[in-house]
């Protein structure tokens, strides 16, 4: 685990277009029952342009940035030893079908704890106008050598 | 999902009527191997420990596990329904404390109890705390949802 990763910001991802059927597919996969997640008419009645993504949908976009981090040759992170420790989503507004989103990861901290390393990665997700939508933060625990 | 305690209300919860400790909702989720495959496809997380027993065993796990993000994803649903408008959920965090083993035949039964944990009167944000268990074991720690009302 390379401690110099702390503070590193990766390049933004290619724009991700949030599709209505992707949102509905994800919503069904997490047992969503709120019609605003599933039905465009209900979403429009609630004041949204289209179906609203469930709170954890941002992980789909965040995942692309975590792949950048894990693929970084100098990271010293062995994917086989990574365990997902904590997760957080902090939203300015919900993701709505039709959004075009870009994600950018910053390594907030790298800590060592009893042979394990904990990497906290913050992915800021912004919309086509550059406005903040949601930040997805993951703490990844990299287990030490056995 | 096997039980549902209440239909979503027609309007948002009244912040001023809430008290710390109030029960928001209680739900039981039946997770099967099918649920894991469906979530893998929907999320793009195709780590084989979530659908292949041989791979799970090879890396020292007792069996196929649910994606932590799947458990996090459904555990918040009672709160999303309570909030009526999913956009009111402004913050959601958890710690993955224990994996959810999903038996090929029996699946896994996950119970979620959501209660009011804290009320920020100035910001009008209710913190809903989730207790997420398989049997007697807690699988998500410090699972907190902040709802703007």
UniProtKB/TrEMBL annotation, chain A:
<dbReference type="Pfam" id="PF13452">
    <property type="entry name" value="FAS1_DH_region"/>
</dbReference>
<dbReference type="InterPro" id="IPR016709">
    <property type="entry name" value="HadA-like"/>
</dbReference>
<feature type="domain" description="FAS1-like dehydratase">
    <location>
        <begin position="7"/>
        <end position="135"/>
    </location>
</feature>
<dbReference type="InterPro" id="IPR039569">
    <property type="entry name" value="FAS1-like_DH_region"/>
</dbReference>
<protein>
    <recommendedName>
        <fullName>UPF0336 protein GE115_06510</fullName>
    </recommendedName>
</protein>
<comment type="similarity">
    <text>Belongs to the UPF0336 family.</text>
</comment>
<dbReference type="InterPro" id="IPR029069">
    <property type="entry name" value="HotDog_dom_sf"/>
</dbReference>
Automatic annotation (TrEMBL), chain B:
<dbReference type="InterPro" id="IPR029069">
    <property type="entry name" value="HotDog_dom_sf"/>
</dbReference>
<dbReference type="Pfam" id="PF01575">
    <property type="entry name" value="MaoC_dehydratas"/>
</dbReference>
<dbReference type="InterPro" id="IPR002539">
    <property type="entry name" value="MaoC-like_dom"/>
</dbReference>
<protein>
    <submittedName>
        <fullName>Acyl dehydratase</fullName>
    </submittedName>
</protein>
<comment type="similarity">
    <text>Belongs to the enoyl-CoA hydratase/isomerase family.</text>
</comment>
<feature type="domain" description="MaoC-like">
    <location>
        <begin position="28"/>
        <end position="116"/>
    </location>
</feature>
């Amino acid at each position: 685990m390379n401690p110099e990763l702390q503070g590193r910001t990766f390049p933004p991802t290619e724009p991700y277009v949030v599709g209505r059927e992707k949102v509905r597919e994800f919503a069904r996969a997490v047992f969503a029952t709120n019609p605003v997640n599933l039905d465009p008419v209900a979403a429009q009645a609630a004041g949204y342009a289209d179906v609203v993504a469930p709170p954890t949908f941002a992980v789909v976009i965040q995942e692309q940035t975590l792949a950048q981090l894990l693929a970084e040759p100098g990271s010293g992170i062995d994917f086989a030893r990574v365990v997902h420790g904590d997760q957080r989503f902090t939203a300015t507004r919900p993701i709505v079908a039709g959004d075009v989103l870009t994600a950018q990861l910053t390594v907030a901290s790298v800590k060592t704890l009893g042979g394990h390393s904990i990497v906290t990665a913050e992915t800021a997700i912004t919309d086509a106008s550059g406005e903040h939508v949601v930040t997805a933060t993951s703490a990844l625990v990299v287990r030490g050598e056995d | 999902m096997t039980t549902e305690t209440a239909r979503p209300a027609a309007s948002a919860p009244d912040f001023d009527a809430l008290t710390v400790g109030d029960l928001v909702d209680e739900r039981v989720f039946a997770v099967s191997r099918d649920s894991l495959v469906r979530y893998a496809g929907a999320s793009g997380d195709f780590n084989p420990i979530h659908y292949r027993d041989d791979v799970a065993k090879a890396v020292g796990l007792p069996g196929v596990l649910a994606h932590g993000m799947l458990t996090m994803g459904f555990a918040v649903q009672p709160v999303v329904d309570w909030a009526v408008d999913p956009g009111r959920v402004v913050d959601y965090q958890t710690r993955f404390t224990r994996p959810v083993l999903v038996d090929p035949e029996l699946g896994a039964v996950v119970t979620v109890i959501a209660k009011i944990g804290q009320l920020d009167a100035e910001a009008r944000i209710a913190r809903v705390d989730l207790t997420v268990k398989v049997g007697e074991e807690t699988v998500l720690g410090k699972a907190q949802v902040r709802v703007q009302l």
